[in-house]
Amino acid sequence: MRSSDFKTDSTQTGLDEIPGFPEANLRLELSALARANNSLAEALNKMTDTGPQTEDRKRVLVVDDSPFILDITRKELEKAGYEVMTVDHVFIARTVNQFRPHLILMDVNIRSEQGNIVTRALREHTAGRDALIILYSVLPEDQLGPLAESCGADGFICKSNNITRIASRVERLFSLQAESPDIRNMLMS
C-alpha cells in the first residue's frame, strides 16, 4: 500500500496537512493489528491447549445445562486436582475425541435431550468407550439406578447428595476403577 491510498480519508478530515500523517497512521494501525493478532493467537492457544495430559491428572468432562451446576462442579473438581472441561449441550462427540476424558458426568435432562440417550450413543462411539460415564442428576436413586443400567452408564451420582462432595465421589470412582477394570458391575450391584 502507498500512503496516497489513504489520501481520500485524510483529506476529508483535513489531516493530510499534517506532515507524514498517512504513513504514521498506517504504522500505528499495522502495529495495533499485529498486537491484536498476537493476543488472538495467545487466546486461541489457551483455548485449545488443555495442558499436559498425563495419566497422573485425570480429565473430567461435565455435561449439564445449568451454569450453576457446571460452575460449582468445575470448581470442586479443579480444587481436587482434576482437569475439568464443562459443556452445556449434548453435542459432545468432538469434545470427547479432543479432550479424551477419563470420566464423563452426564446430566439426565439437558434441555430437550436425554443424557441417557447420549450415553448410549457414546458407548457405541469409539471415543466414549474408554471413559467412565456417570449419570449426574437430581433424580432419586431408585430412578437413576435402572436408568444408568439401561443406557450403559457405569453408575450414577445424585446431585442432591451435597454437590460439594463431588470430588470425593469422583475420587472413589477412580479408586474403584483402579481396583477392578470391570467397575460397571461393581457400581450397579
Structure description:
The chain is an alpha/beta fold and 189 residues long. The protein is built from nine helices and seven strands; from the N terminus they run ααβαβαβββααβαβαα. It has helices at 7-13, 21-48, 67-79, 93-99, 115-124, 126-129, 141-151, 166-179, 183-188; strands at residues 59-63, 83-87, 103-106, 109-110, 113-114, 132-137, 155-158. The strands form two sheets. The protein has a five-stranded parallel β-sheet with strand order 2-1-3-6-7, sandwiched between helices. Strands 4-5 form a two-stranded antiparallel ribbon. It is globular. The relative contact order is 0.10.
Task: Give a brief description.
By secondary structure, the chain is α/β, with parallel strands linked by helices.
List the helices and strands and how they pair.
Layout: H1 7-13, H2 21-48, E1 59-63, H3 67-79, E2 83-87, H4 93-99, E3 103-106, E4 109-110, E5 113-114, H5 115-124, H6 126-129, E6 132-137, H7 141-151, E7 155-158, H8 166-179, H9 183-188
Helix pairs in contact: 5-7
